[in-house]
Amino acid sequence: MDSLPAFAVGVDLGGTTIKAALVERGVGIQHELSRPTEAEEGPAHVIGRIAEMVQTLIRRAPDHQIAGIGIGAPGTVNWERTAVVYPPNLPGWGIVDLRKALQEALGIPLPVFVENDANLAGLGSAHYGAGRPFDAFIMVTLGTGVGGAIIYRNRIFRGTTGGAGEIGHMSIDYEGPLDRYGIAGSIEAYIGQRFLSRYARYRLLTQRHSLVHQMAGEDLRNLTPRLLYEAARAGDEPAREVLAWAGHKLGCVLASAVNLLDIHKIVVGGGVSAADRFILEPARQTLRRYVIPALRDKVEIIRETLGNEAGMLGAAQLVFQLLEHPSEELEA
Amino acid sequence: MDSLPAFAVGVDLGGTTIKAALVERGVGIQHELSRPTEAEEGPAHVIGRIAEMVQTLIRRAPDHQIAGIGIGAPGTVNWERTAVVYPPNLPGWGIVDLRKALQEALGIPLPVFVENDANLAGLGSAHYGAGRPFDAFIMVTLGTGVGGAIIYRNRIFRGTTGGAGEIGHMSIDYEGPLDRYGIAGSIEAYIGQRFLSRYARYRLLTQRHSLVHQMAGEDLRNLTPRLLYEAARAGDEPAREVLAWAGHKLGCVLASAVNLLDIHKIVVGGGVSAADRFILEPARQTLRRYVIPALRDKVEIIRETLGNEAGMLGAAQLVFQLLEHPSEELEA
């Protein structure tokens, strides 16, 4: 092979939408496409759809040359990065070898790498986003759940089976509320979207003066984190208190991760992180109190400003990394 | 240089005792020495003493050739692994460049590497102890404090500044008891020797039927974890309950570490771990409940049977590793 093409395709395989981008190495996204996933039609349909998007993007690349394709999906991927394993957002999928299927659908044996989407968001941040100044950081993605990734020496720290970074299921209270896995006091059971919405609803139901009562319907049945931020931005003190409570919990779990890893920078992405001052500022205060003294002046929480693009950029970056240094990443 | 000598000296620089061993690579300790530290005499005295021990051991090596010297010390070492930084067991020491001082004392520029003692216990376990079957595991050392290390791909995972593995200060309850750093609910505040002794004393003071009342003096003022194990081994139910309580807490913090790192094997060393069935069995049960479902069948807690030797073996192993692959470990 001659020198590696400077372009790759990064795919974000979501439950409702497939996003794909042509990424120029070190520069960013050059073209971006979006299609409904239609996951209910099955893997073959979805893979055909990804192949079409990839072909469209290849035609936009110089000389129609790309280095390969990176695909991000939620949940587990296999260690070889070829397959999704019971992806939670694609019901009924089981284990699907995306590399093989996509290569067949394309009719060309382009390199294909599959990786967990939170890990790719971290890798994208490391090379194109808020993580660029650091060669090691913890990525936290606040959304429906609490996703995480460990970036170390500008690469994904994979652990033993490729699943490292599950910060969402670290516990901050061994007798705390249960998350969906039955783990007591995991951070997701406090600030995952469903849990935070329920907590906020119970806490604010009797606080009739809170703005959220004008926004979230009868009995606050439509209360979401997003409505909390809107109320907080409008000056609503009860909503701010809920978000500060969430930020405090986030700071606790981050401190445990920092103490264990000796990694001092934390990049927070995802929709919730838009509420920087209401969640992240309390998180910063708590974080400093819960890390060992030697780290108190070093810890820092930074907000990621890349949105969905982080995952696609990370997917493309993974292709470049693995083709240049296969042994470092792929060995067990 | 010709091929690397197959022997190195591993030193364990304790607050009261210096231990040093001549280690044959892949085989184990060939000779071992022990001297009082006499730390109050200052760094020059202690370094002179280490130099004497090293010289004695070099004379036992084939052709009087060793690859180098590894030194383990508690607390922080600098990233370059040349100096201890305010070692907690050597009061008044500040930052001491052990490499330079020892090379000068020896009069020969042998390679010298300094590393945190918990990290070296982990490395020793990885190459000579219970960690041998695994290329990644979490090492926990139960003693005065709760030490930790992360072994990944048979090497020490160092983090950003060389301080990774501080599992003792991970919190399991954000409103729990404070440790010596003021961190709420850190595992050390439950099972560190001083904390566990105090908890046991208060819990057992009124349980007059417990054997510990015959062992620990008036008002249980001499109660230690070791006495608890002795009582537990003698069948004392109250003592067993205290140790099970400690094991449950240990399982909680290990689960958070496992979830974050995706490292499934845990090697427990240190004096407390002798109480395998009383502490580690409850820890195993809790651990399984607090890790994500995908890991429940994979997690395993193994007891390290090497004692102090683990640290010296690890110190020697570090010398071999760093001389063979300097860039992998030393780059930032």
TrEMBL record, chains A, B:
Taxonomic lineage of the native organism: Bacteria, Pseudomonadati, Rhodothermota, Rhodothermia, Rhodothermales
Source organism of the structure: Rhodothermus profundi
Cross-referenced InterPro entries: ATPase_NBD (IPR043129), ROK (IPR000600), ROK_cs (IPR049874)
Family per similarity comment: Belongs to the ROK (NagC/XylR) family.
Source organism superkingdom: Bacteria
Protein name, entry field: Glucokinase
SUPFAM superfamilies: Actin-like ATPase domain (SSF53067)
Pfam families cross-referenced by the UniProt entry: ROK (PF00480)
Keyword terms, alphabetized: Kinase, Transferase
GO molecular function ontology, one term from the record: kinase activity
Keyword Iron part of the UniProt annotation: no
Coiled coil segments of this chain: none
